Amino acid sequence: MHRRLARLSLAEARVRVVHDTSTARQAAHAYVDLLERRDWSGLAALLTDDVVYEMPQTRERIRGTDAFLRFNTEYPGDWHLRPRRVVADGRLAVLLLDVRVGVEQQDACVWLEMSEHGLISKIIDYWPESYDPPQGREHLVERW
Question: How far apart are CA 95 and CA 107, in angstroms?
């Protein structure tokens, strides 16, 4: 009896991981698409209210959906995102992005963590090089 329950629990766990992985993959694609289209209400619906956004290279952190959306709406330049690769496992997803601002191109890596409800709860943006954050966004970020 215990073996059967253990097998059932393991099978249920595998189904949950597959479901979570599918949800994380879909959320990662939607995240890039919504940012690219500047669909702020759609993006807000994809995030937890207390989402945390971090940029290790500038040592900046933004807390909350409203501040994250404002950061993106105020971000300068004609930027564009295109996913090159998406890898998901359970409630985690990683994006390799082609990022363009005008004619300038860079690759970036974005780490997404999902809540138990399938919403993005944490975003970490990794850029190839550290840099000093631009002036004018101090009202949205905390530094570490």
Answer: 10
